[in-house]
């Protein structure tokens, strides 16, 4: 039985373990695989960048309080963040890169900018 190229389905001649008829087909096939992965990465990065942009806009001084409603109206997505920081007292700050927030009582949030080490 003839082996077929994974990209163009042409008959492959040569080694028994060969998967592609030429370098172009190998590149096409691998680029298609990576394109599917990169779509999801791009989508998530867009959400993270939007979240950061919202935090920057609502926190020009580096520290302020805002309501959850204000964050939501701006389009903030609470499901996506880059890291967390827990203080010695147990408070958990959520960050989108260098800007973050701490949940307070009654749907208020303390917005902060990460301090340089």
Protein described:
This protein has 117 residues and is an alpha+beta fold. It has one domain. It contains two helices and five strands; from the N terminus they run αβαββββ. It has helices at residues 23-58, 68-73, and strands spanning 63-67, 83-86, 92-96, 99-103, 108-113. It has a five-stranded antiparallel sheet with strand order 1-5-4-3-2. A hairpin with a 2-residue loop joins strand 3 (92-96) and strand 4. The longest helix has 36 residues, at 23-58. It is rod-shaped. The model has no long low-confidence stretch (mean pLDDT 92).
Number of spatially distinct domains = 1
By secondary-structure content and strand pairing, the structural class works out as alpha+beta
Q: How far from one another are the termini?
A: 64 Å
Q: What's the total number of strands?
A: 5
Query: What's the average pLDDT?
Result: 92
User: Strand-residue fraction?
Assistant: 15-25%
**Biggest sheet, open or closed, and with what strands and sense?**
5 strands, antiparallel
Strand order of the largest sheet: 1-5-4-3-2
What order do the helices and strands follow? Answer: HEHEEEE
- Low-confidence region ranges: none
The whole-angstrom Rg is 24 Å
Which shape, going by the Cα principal axes? rod-shaped
**Helix content bin:** 25-40%
H/I helix tally:
2
Keywords for this entry:
36% helix, rod-shaped, 117 residues, 5 strands, five-stranded antiparallel beta sheet, alpha+beta, 2 helices
Write a brief structural summary.
This protein has 117 residues and is an alpha+beta fold.
List the helices and strands and how they pair.
Elements: H1 23-58, E1 63-67, H2 68-73, E2 83-86, E3 92-96, E4 99-103, E5 108-113
Antiparallel strand pairs: 1-5, 2-3, 3-4, 4-5
